[in-house]
């Protein structure tokens, strides 16, 4: 049986609207003291890794969503290009069987001049973009993709695939 394609509305990104999923990291003056608007990182469960990942364009459809239960993750486009991400809140982080509800999945357009930090356990799909290829700064643990990569296949579990809608 083929999955039903459903539109997912793109929400306005603000620190408040993104708070259930993570932190919006906006530019600020050099020397600004650490404060409540800064990203609090959880990188103590392994060796932190900052790298630039190069991604090709892919269909603007969300068939699966992923979470990392051991680490926060930071993402930003290298060339200042905007991009899209689908997210769901980090409920039941300690339960490896927990999965997000369809109604909890939201989409955001990330401007090219900000980064995001995903809370430990936040579900995410993306980055998605229109360009042929975009590189992203990615901060996570050195082995996140090998040992801390839980997937929920929306097309198989719910018979649903989300498509980004402006």
Instruction: Estimate percent helicity.
Output: under 10%
* Amino- and carboxy-terminal Cα gap: 28 Å
- Beta percentage is 35-45%
Report the CATH architecture: Sandwich
**CATH homologous superfamily assignment:** Ureidoglycolate hydrolase
How many separate domains?
1
Kindly identify the CATH topology: Jelly Rolls
Q: Any idea what the radius of gyration is?
A: 15 Å
What order do the strands of the largest sheet run in, or round the barrel if closed?
4-13-1-8-7-10
The low-pLDDT segments are none
Strand pairing plus helix content: what structural class?
mainly beta
Main β sheet profile:
6 strands, mixed
The first-level CATH class name: Mainly Beta
Whole-number mean pLDDT: 96
Q: Estimate the global geometry from the Cα principal axes.
A: globular
- Give the oligomer, counting copies of the same chain as homo and different chains as hetero: single chain
Topology as a string of helices (H) and strands (E)? EHEEEEEEEEEEHEHE
Count the DSSP helices. 3
Keywords: Lyase, Purine metabolism
Subunit structure: Homodimer.
GO biological process, one term: purine nucleobase metabolic process
InterPro entries: RmlC_Cupin_sf, Ureidogly_lyase, Ureidoglycolate_lyase_dom_sf
């Amino acid at each position: 049986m083929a999955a039903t394609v459903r539109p997912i509305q793109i929400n306005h990104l603000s620190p408040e609207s993104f708070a259930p999923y993570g932190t919006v990291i906006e530019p600020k003056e050099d020397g600004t003291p650490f404060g409540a608007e800064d990203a609090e990182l959880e990188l103590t469960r392994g060796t932190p890794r900052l790298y630039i990942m190069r991604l090709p364009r892919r269909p603007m459809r969300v068939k699966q969503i992923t979470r990392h239960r051991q680490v926060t993750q930071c993402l930003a486009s290298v060339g200042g290009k905007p991009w899209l991400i689908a997210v769901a809140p980090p409920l039941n982080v300690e339960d490896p069987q927990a999965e997000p509800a369809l109604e909890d999945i939201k989409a955001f357009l990330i401007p090219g001049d900000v980064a995001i930090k995903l809370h430990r356990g936040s579900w995410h799909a993306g980055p998605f973009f229109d360009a042929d290829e975009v590189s992203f700064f990615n901060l996570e643990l050195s082995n996140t993709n090998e040992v801390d990569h839980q997937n929920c296949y929306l097309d198989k579990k719910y018979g649903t695939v989300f498509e980004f809608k402006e």
